[in-house]
Write a structure and sequence with these properties.
It contains 9 helices and 20 strands. The chain is α/β, with parallel strands linked by helices. The chain folds into 2 domains: about 280 residues, Zn peptidases (Aminopeptidase, 3-Layer(aba) Sandwich); about 120 residues, Aminopeptidase i, Domain 2 (Roll), CATH 2.30.250.10.
């Protein structure tokens, strides 16, 4: 496939994945189409060498793995995250004003660039827990339509606006969604799901940017889309995982939730999900005594996007280690181990790239600017295996609409395939 086709596949995946729950649902469908069998954490794992399996936790995290026919040499793991910064609806979210406006009462989820959410068509999606005859059931909902908007204050009311403004999320960032004070979100949900409103007992609902992703620039050099961080890595690593052939290692594809808020949940990287799944593989196949040596011969790639050199603010980047769009995957380094790449794991990544003609770049934060965190160092605190941090270069990270390089999508998908095939 050409780079544009791979990038279009990503844009389609993002459009179909307005929340972490929808992203994992779409991953599950791709896994099942490829012959993976579902596991239930509440049940014993009945695993068979040579088969493919997946397990989902809390509807928003997933681990899939392929077992070799014989005793494996170790694990080959890639991990990304399903969540992105956005607004989350609070309980009882309707706020009426002057019998003319109804707003959603929302709170921030993750580190958002608040100004980018103003004056955009927005919608609402998430999961709903409903009461059925057989008990509680979870259903996904996506209103899809342009349901709400956060209007800016006119410059006539704040002539100093272009000199900078601090936004208060409780005041400035409440989405307008109705002109009828009697409207309730639960009635819309009930209609969408064709259920009775009284059946709705809980919901995790998020506001998302309803704009579609697209190609931008001369020769479609760039893509612009919501949620490139980190669905760009969720998608590309899945493509590589499904395309790879490995007969000597257990290959694992991991997507965790809640990276944007610290990962310390039962479905986050700071949980037992990965370590527990590895251990249960060992128990099911009677490999328990071999697990220490398998772990010692394993490798984990933490796959989360990195900051490209900004065209208007190059001074924000390190002078010698600033990635550019369309120039290859990013290998991320950090002296204090916010990124886990060291000389050895970085060399392994570079070697795979060189052998397979995949361009790569290096990234360091400026020494006087604090960078973001990711899930690599958190994951290996639960299962001690060598790790490196890589990702796609992008601009406007945590904006409601982000930018990446068209060619880099294919670069990362190819790297994922060859990483999983590495013997």
């Amino acid at each position: 496939m050409g780079a544009k086709n791979v990038a279009q596949g990503l844009l389609d995946f993002i459009e179909a994945s307005p929340t972490c729950y929808h992203a994992v649902k779409n991953v599950r469908e791709k896994l099942e189409n490829a012959g993976f069998e579902a596991l239930d954490e509440k049940m014993d794992y009945q695993l068979i060498p040579g088969k493919k399996f997946y397990v989902i936790r809390n509807d928003s995290s997933v681990i899939a793995f392929v077992l070799p026919q014989q005793m494996p040499k170790g694990f080959r793991v890639m991990a990304s995250h399903s969540d992105s910064p956005c607004f989350k609806l609070k309980e009882n979210p309707e706020v009426a004003l002057e019998n003319a406006y109804v707003k959603f009462n929302v709170e921030k989820y993750g580190g958002m660039i608040l100004s980018t959410w103003l004056d955009r068509p927005l919608s609402v999606a998430g999961r709903v827990v409903v009461k059925e005859e057989s008990g509680l059931a979870t259903k996904l909902v996506d209103f899809e339509e342009k349901l709400c908007i956060i209007p800016n204050v006119a410059i006539h009311f704040n002539r100093e606006m272009n000199k900078g403004i601090e936004y208060n999320p409780q005041i400035d960032m409440q989405p307008l969604w109705s002109a009828n004070k009697e409207d309730k979100i639960n009635s819309l949900i009930a209609k969408k799901l064709q259920i009775d409103e009284t059946q709705i007992l809980g919901a995790d609902l998020f506001v998302y940017n309803q704009e579609k992703g697209c190609f931008i620039g001369n020769d479609d050099a760039f893509i612009g889309s919501p949620r490139i961080d980190d669905l760009g890595c969720v998608y590309t690593t899945l493509e590589g995982f499904l395309a790879a052939q490995n007969t000597e290692f257990i290959t694992m594809y991991c997507v965790f939730d809640h990276e944007e808020v610290g990962s310390c949940t039962r479905q986050g990287a700071d949980s037992d999900f990965l370590a527990s799944t590895m251990n249960r593989i060992g128990v099911s196949l009677n490999w328990e005594k071999d697990m220490p040596k398998l772990m010692a011969n394993s490798l984990l790639m933490s796959v989360d996007n990195g900051h490209a050199l900004h065209p208007n603010h190059p001074e924000k980047s390190d002078g010698q280690n600033h990635p550019l769009l369309n120039k290859g995957i990013v290998i991320k380094y950090h002296g204090n181990q916010q990124y886990t790449t060291d000389a050895y794991t970085g060399a392994l990544v570079k070697d795979i790239c060189i052998i397979n003609d995949i361009p790569y770049q290096t990234y360091h934060n400026r020494s006087d600017i604090m960078g973001g965190s990711t899930l690599g160092n958190i994951s290996i605190s639960h299962c001690s295996i060598p790790s490196a941090d890589i990702g796609l270069p992008q601009l406007a990270m945590h904006s409601a609409f982000e930018t990446a390089g068209t060619n880099d999508i294919q670069h990362l998908a190819e790297f994922a395939k060859y990483f999983y095939q590495c013997q």
